[in-house]
Design a protein that fits this description.
single chain, alpha+beta, 6-stranded mixed beta sheet, 8 helices, 17 strands
Length: 395
């Protein structure tokens, strides 16, 4: 299963409708295709995804909230009750007489449920969520399906007018009111969305390993370490850490590693191990504030790995937020960058709609204020400056 687009409306924190396109919005050249992945193709054209999506904005612009929306949709697609998803807080301000509508378009290559001759199909899941009796409920939901045909083009890819209804909530009375009908779809079609999100690690930097750390990985972040071995027995964990030329250090709690490993090494092992996992599955890795604890070169290395087909052969996708405009210059294209702004509500715009030319240096366009709302407000800066000056005088 591959997500093609997420479109959400009626979510209190957002100013208007929010769109995330996972497929390329701009024309894909032969050179561009080297760092992208084909999700599916027809005889006429290939439908290609960006393997990296970056969200950038100033502090409190809503980047984390936007990532939580993506994570929420992914976990809902994977059968989790929406009330048990921690990212559901984005719907916390929803009134009982209002509905949030989430439209998720995805590609699935399994047709077991329909015995259809095609190798895959496009689906549109429309989920309406309300807040009733102190909890979130799915009040209405449909899953539409359309086959991949010769005349399918990008301009009509998301047009489901007249498409058959493959599933509807009204015919699935057995479902709990906070579980999506995707639970039935996934079971019948043996589908599962491979997604790993690191949102819980944004402010907590603690190593978590199920097995020995690969020596190549530990050497990349700290060449002074000879090995890091993990052995689990029931609920107990035995950790063996050895620096070159020194004896092994025995530990029994992951938190103790913070005394010996740098924050960058811990963040690096966690992140790169999860990246390796999604490389195998062709899944999604969601990371908030990717640059935390990293220098720029390590962040750039991770981005480049996702854009390298020799490493990322299955079309895994990295979705991250950042404060660093310089990271935008890693991208040749504009359509894998989203500008997040908060002006009386969160708005999200794809850079390709704001900046038509790819040859303009993206970091300069962002930092110059040309895009509006991407640099701290001048009035706020002057007010802060005056406050600091008066504090100095009083002292």
């Amino acid at each position: 299963m591959k997500i093609l687009r997420i479109r959400a409306s009626g979510i209190p924190l957002f100013k208007d409708r929010c769109d995330f396109d996972f497929l390329a919005l701009q024309r894909v050249t032969a050179e561009d295709a080297e760092s992208m992945s084909v999700v599916f193709s027809t005889e006429a054209q290939a439908f290609t995804q960006n393997n990296v999506l970056a969200l950038i904005g100033i502090n409190a612009s809503g980047k984390t909230t936007a990532l939580k929306l993506i994570a929420f949709v992914c976990r809902m697609l994977n059968n989790e009750p929406i009330n048990s998803i921690d990212c559901a807080e984005i719907l916390g301000g929803l009134d009982e007489d209002c509905c949030a509508c989430i439209e998720t378009t995805f590609y699935a290559d399994s047709c077991v449920a329909h015995q259809a001759p095609e190798s895959g199909a496009i689906y549109l899941l429309t989920t309406e969520i309300s807040h009733k009796n102190g909890k979130l409920v799915i009040v209405q939901e449909t899953l539409r399906r359309k086959a991949i045909t010769r005349d399918l083009r990008k301009k009509n890819l998301f047009d489901f007018q007249g498409a058959e209804i493959a599933m509807s909530r009204q015919f699935n009375d057995f479902l709990l009111d906070d579980v999506s009908i995707m639970v039935a779809f996934n079971k019948r079609n043996y589908e599962q969305l491979a997604v790993l999100d690191m949102l819980q690690y944004t402010n907590i930097n603690q190593l978590s390993l199920a097995e020995d750390c690969p020596p190549e990985l530990i050497a990349f972040f700290d060449p002074s370490i000879e090995y890091l071995k993990i052995k689990k027995e029931n609920k107990n964990v035995h950790i063996g850490l050895k620096f070159k030329g020194k004896g092994e250090i025995a530990l029994n709690r992951f938190a103790e590693l913070n005394r010996y490993l740098s924050s960058g090494t811990i963040k690096g092992i966690n992140t790169f191990l999860k990246a390796a996992s999604v490389f195998r599955t062709g899944g999604y890795l969601v990371v908030d504030e990717l640059e935390n604890h990293f220098n720029r070169e390590i962040v750039s290395t991770l981005i480049r790995l996702f854009m390298d087909k020799r490493v990322n052969a299955n079309g895994a996708m990295l979705i991250f937020s950042t404060h660093y405009a310089e990271l935008l210059d890693e991208f040749e294209r504009n359509d894998n960058i989203y500008i997040v702004r908060n002006r009386h509500g969160i708005s999200i715009d794809n850079l390709s709609t704001l900046l038509k030319r790819n040859d303009i240096k993206k970091s300069e366009a962002y930092q110059s204020g040309f895009l509006e709302g991407t640099v701290p407000m001048y009035e706020a800066y002057m007010a802060l400056k005056k406050t600091l000056m008066s504090t100095k005088k009083e002292g």
